[in-house]
Amino acid sequence: MVKNHGSQIKDDKLYEDLRRQGESKEKAARIANARANGSLDHRSNRLEDRSKEDLYAEAQKIGIEGRSKMNKSELVNAVRNHK
After folding, report:
1. Virtual CA dihedral for 8, 13, 14, 18, nearest 10 degrees?
2. 26, 27, 30, 31: CA torsion to nearest 10
């Protein structure tokens, strides 16, 4: 059974899944709330399913340096491991 995390967390199940995967509380909350608000619906759930261009744009948005020299798998890892 999924625990209710209060009104601050909009998608409790996703939040718990992300926490079990090792995401920080803040990152899990941001992702869960964005998904619940519909702002992540245009993206695939898996980074590997996204295009290199989309990953590059995400890396640029979050400020990952060296992204222009990265291949798709390196971008996936950089975006996934960004804290």
Report:
1. 100
2. -150
Asked if residue 42 lies in contact with residue 22, where contact means CB atoms within 8 angstroms, the answer is no
Same domain, 3 and 17: yes
pLDDT tens-place string over residues 32-45: 888 877 666 545 56
Q: Which of 54, 66, 68, 62 is nearest to 82 (CA)?
A: 62
pLDDT, tens digit, for every residue of 42-77? 455 688 888 899 999 999 999 999 999 999 999 999
- Give this prediction's pTM: 0.48
Based on the fold, state whether residues 51 and 34 are members of the same structural domain.
Answer: no
Q: Which domain holds residue 16?
A: 1-42
